[in-house]
User: What shape does this take?
Amino acid sequence: MSALTQEKAIIAFGKLGQKLTSPADILGNILYSAGNANAWFTEENIKKSILSFAEMLNETDLLLWFKSIQFNTSPKKIGLILAGNIPLVGLHDVLCVLATGNIALIKLSSSDDQLIKTVLAELINIEPAFADHIEYVERLKDFDAVIATGSNNSSRYFDYYFSKVPNIIRKNRNSVAVLDGTETKEEIQSLGNDIFDYFGLGCRNVSKLYLPKGYEIANFYEGIESFQPIINHFKYQNNYDYNKSIYLVNAAKHFDNGFLLLKEDQSLASPLAVLYYEEYENLKDVENKLNDKTADIQCVVTKSPINIMSFDFGQSQHPKLWDYADNVNTISFLNSLN
Assistant: This one.
């Protein structure tokens, strides 16, 4: 088998992107077995994730992205501990390792142990040279660097265990939306995707709103009414019912439209089926607050003129190849190992 080259990687990634535009052809029965293994992984959400990667791996963006990549002809072994909160959430890290010519030692999440294998098998089918750069492991050993994603608790363990090698350790993050009151119903509906895609389980999902003082909550609820069917998913409904009962028992002030609870709270991380909100007097105050919480925020969604990198409504779950998690440039990290 001939060795992997950067040119081969670019061509193969492009072909994979084209293949992923037909999720059912790639996944077949995996669509059903993955959903049976993890009830959050509905067919709709799996397809949504696959299509987001198809969108990401377009020829124009690939050529631009690869300009920043130093291809390693003496591959390093990069340990990857992947999360499993939403379908294929760890695939971007794998692609970064492969794009730099390194070897991915992949510790899959038990919550998502089929989808990534299936997609990478397709990549190997397109370009067999990748077979020597992908290894699935139960326990990491003999690695040169590590990229590990987990909770705030597991990150403390990762920090200790991997302290002697170059590493990226990711913790819990949340995303927020800033409204200024001029949003149309269509814009609020787009924001609904940032909130409800993947049931709100991803770090790119909006878990908190910043609202101008006196904002009419009914306007927000009217804009997201098309997402009402989410309550039909039993696990989501269980979370909604539980949180609603807690608020009622504790006489906690909240708003309720039958499928999403709104509660005023200073925190960023809201429970599932709950969206926290906070009122503000002026946008500069919000900007200052968000700058103070940079280490805890993954994405900011807004159309307001704030001096913070942000996404348009409906775009938080459509990152580009260079929209790196936690704003840590994975490619720069991998380039530094050469």
